[in-house]
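Students often ask why we bother encoding 3D structure as a string. The short answer is that it lets us treat folding as translation between two languages. Here is a chain of 130 residues written in the first language.
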Amino acid sequence: MYSAASGEPIGVSFMNLLSHPSYDRASPESRSLVCNGCGAAGAKFDFVPDAIWGLPIQEACFRHDWRYSIGTTEEEKAIADIEFLNNLMILINNTKGFTATMLRIPRRRRALKYYEMVVSFGDKAYWAGK
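And here it is in the second language, the structure alphabet:
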């Protein structure tokens, strides 16, 4: 469920997510050119869910996409990937309510899988266009 006022999922705040300073300064239009959500841009199938057990995680994916678009070294890819995991954990840990509490451990496990996938299979997306 989303708040009509902010467009954010109810009970979730994006204010504490980590990001490169240029992401915070970028216009929504600039972001939309780079950030496609979870999964590789241009993939034949959109098989990576934008939610973990009902928790929307697109904003963590957007920030990860941004880091991939500006990075130029293996170290910057590693930073993007660990920041992605940290942002997933921030979203999971800061979501309130009974359901969020009950799903916290399974969501953390799934977040680790997302992280493992970008570390293991994110090279093509990271190096695209560089």
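Translate back mentally: Confidence is low (pLDDT under 50) at residues 1-11. Keep this in mind for the problem set.
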